Amino acid sequence: MGKIKIEKKDIWIDMTPMSDVMTLLLCFFMLTSTFLTPEPVKVNTPSSVSEVKVPENDVLNILISPEGNIYVGSENKNTMVEMMETVTDKFGVALNATQLKHFREDAMIGAPMALFADYYNLDAEKMGEEIQKLSIPLDSINGGKSEFQEWVAAARESNPDIRLAIKADATTSYAVIKKMMSELQDMNENRYQLITNLDVKKQAEI
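Below the sequence we write its predicted structure tokens.
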């Protein structure tokens, strides 16, 4: 019996609909993604079972490195500039156009006022290296506010609805955190959020 030959046909799949779907998905993720603000130092936060999320807007982030260095910053660049103008006016520090440009590009504030102008004279790479050695001082000035308190007060003046979020490393000295919180209490800033990592194992045990 003779074999029946099956005619071979080319299979053609129209990929246009799939390309359209991929483009739509890409646009969706790009428009809905939230980009994290870069931090001057790496901080490994302690674990907790709290699921309360920190708001994305109107937040003054207070970062404390493992060495106890303190930085402040906001996602709102206009707030940052207003804070800077308020604090530099009080300390008699003036930034030129280049320094102001570098300030706008910086993620967080960490240079003490004594080195503020010099720090923003550096290029971006040098700023990234130098900021890890700097910190906003907690010591009071002539019995008045500390530089840290001045920055917090300037943030509150710029945005009365701003909220405070504290992010400290798990190995940061408790004495530094306690002193920083004490300075907030002296300003009647008693409401703030502590940023931690969600401990899934402990949460499951509860």
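The chain has a mean pLDDT of 84.
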